[in-house]
Amino acid sequence: MNNGDLVTRTATSRDAAAIQQLLRTAMLTYCAESEISAAMLEAMTESIESVEERIRNNNCIAVFDGDEAVGTITTGITNVPVKYSFSTKTENFLSEFSQAAYVSRFAVIQGKRHAGLGVSLITASEEYSRSSGCEVMLLHCSTVNKKMTAFYNARGFVLIDVENSRGYPRGLFAKVL
To answer: Has this prediction a pTM greater than 0.70?
Structure first.
C-alpha cells in the first residue's frame, strides 16, 4: 500500500535496525503516557537480532517514509491461547478459543500519529488474524495509558484482566473475531 510518500509492506530482516529505532523512539511516548519507566519495556533494550527473529517468525508489517520506519505492528499466531493467562479469570476466557493472534510491538512515530496509520496497521493485523483462522486477537497495554486503551476500545478490544508482574498495571485486551 502506498499513501503519498508512505509505503506499507511486510517487513524483512533487512528492516530490523529501522524498526528497532522506531520502537525505541515511539515507546518513549508510550512510557510517558503510561507513567512508567522506559526500563520496564523489553522493546527499549531489544537487540537487532531479536527484532530480526520476530520479523522471521511472525507477520510484521511496517510503514516507511523513505528509509525511515514510521509505523509497525507484529502479529503472532498461537494454537495455545491460554499461555497468555495470568489468572483464573483470564484462563477461563481464553479456554474458549483454540487459535489466537497476539499483537505486539505496535508503534507509530509521534509526527505521524493521528493520520490513520495506526488504524491501518491494526486493521491489517486483524485481516491477517482472520485469514490465519484465529478466533480472537490479544494484546497487552498499560491500563494507565488512556489514549491507547481508548484507541483499542474503539476498535472492538475489551479489557479482560489486569496484572502487575512488570511493575505497572498491564491489561490483557481481547477482540473476538
So the answer is: yes
Number of domains the chain contains: 1
What's residue 2's pLDDT?
47
One-letter-per-residue 3-state SS of 109-128: CHHHCCCCHHHHHHHHHHHH
Q: Give the per-residue pLDDT at 4.
A: 64
Q: What DSSP string describes the chain?
A: -EETTEEEEE--GGGHHHHHHHHHHHHHHHHHHHT--GGG-GGGT--HHHHHHHHHHSEEEEEEETTEEEEEEEEEEES-GGGG--SHHHHHHHTT-S-EEEEEEEEE-GGGTTSSHHHHHHHHHHHHHHHTT-SEEEEEEETT-HHHHHHHHHTT-EEEEEE-TTSS-EEEEEEE-
Residue with cell 498461537: 78
- Domain of 30: which CATH number? 3.40.630.30
The C-alpha cell that represents 49 in the structure block: 537480532
Q: Which residues of the chain have pLDDT under 70?
A: 1-4
Domain with 114 in it: 2-176
Q: CB atoms < 10 A from the CB of 24, how many?
A: 16
How far is the first Cα of the chain from the last one, in angstroms, to the nearest whole number?
24
